[in-house]
Amino acid sequence: MRILGVDPGLTRCGIGVIDVDAGRRAQFVHVEVVRSSRDLPLAERLGAIGRGVERALDEFAPDRVALERVFAQHNLRSVMGTAQISGVVLYAADRRGLGVELHTPSEVKAAVTGYGSAEKQQVQTMVQRILRLAEPPKPADAADALALALCSAWKSPVQAAERGAAAASSDVSGGLTPAQAAWREAERRAVAGARRG
Amino acid sequence: MRILGVDPGLTRCGIGVIDVDAGRRAQFVHVEVVRSSRDLPLAERLGAIGRGVERALDEFAPDRVALERVFAQHNLRSVMGTAQISGVVLYAADRRGLGVELHTPSEVKAAVTGYGSAEKQQVQTMVQRILRLAEPPKPADAADALALALCSAWKSPVQAAERGAAAASSDVSGGLTPAQAAWREAERRAVAGARRG
Questions:
Q1: How far is Cα B56 from Cα A111, in angstroms, rounded to an integer?
Q2: Which residue on chain A is closest to B50 by alpha carbon?
Q3: The CATH number of the domain where B105 resides is what?
Q4: Which of A31, A57, B91, B183 could form a disulfide with A50 if both were Cys (CB 3.0 to 4.6 A apart)?
Q5: Which structural domain range is residue B65 located in?
Q6: At B129, phi and psi to the nearest 5?
Q7: Number of domains in chain B
């Protein structure tokens, strides 16, 4: 199953694509950051980002989309732009018949670092380890998009056929749910990677 | 010039279309309210509203779009949905090469009633009078979409050729700007209409 993660933003919008197998092992496919200049009118900025997202949806043909759930908290001005971009992403996904999973930033951080208030750098480091990349994905928006896709891969129900396989393997690994088993495995690898590094 | 106004909303999204001549006289063309059920997933709701807006853009082929400027003020939850819809509208307009004018709710109220804190019913009444409709547009979202289009027609620069004509006629009407002249004229008609009623 292929998942495309989007970290929505009007100035920088991260797009990350991963493949996940029945055992929930994740493979890096693609990452990019689409940008729009602050000097452009709002419609043109949304146009530039929206076209980038649609291009990626068409080129990488994901099975589903993972998108950051937007909250109106601190910076209301930037939240409006983020909400507008997320609307465009949801609409583009719906037009292609793709489901969209929404995840809060703390869910995403907890999924890849085990800690819901992790720093941006921790997320970048863990995304690098889990996906076995040569370098941490930069800027943070790129890492966040991949982290969203990973979060969605581990948290959401897999397809029926895959679910059977994962359930069977989870019996072997001591009664863990597929998500727990995948999480344990990623954690084990990341720790092993950190020791090697 | 044809203007399509959108009062963005996730549950009810108003769409109103007017034609404006060189003298800024407005003619009613179309009004509708596109709806989406609260029971649907967010992506499908945005899909339903977005398709309605795109259908109207294609059917009525406006020269520009007038959209409510979204602020994060009172109800943050509903504001997020409104911002997402507005993102979809901005993106759909940009894809068609259409400019979008953003107006605040108080600008719109002031444009059609002369008072920035007017009640919804006042806006409905004035939109009915200005566009010479048999009944006030209902629900409020329908009236708001037409009011947005009227606000845009009166406040924004017209095309070069039209600007010349409007400037010439404004000289006749005592040195008023075209917007002021149009505003006076609408006000005069509305007051006359109210007296007749």
A1: 42
A2: A91
A3: 3.30.420.10
A4: B91
A5: 2-196
A6: -65, -50
A7: 1
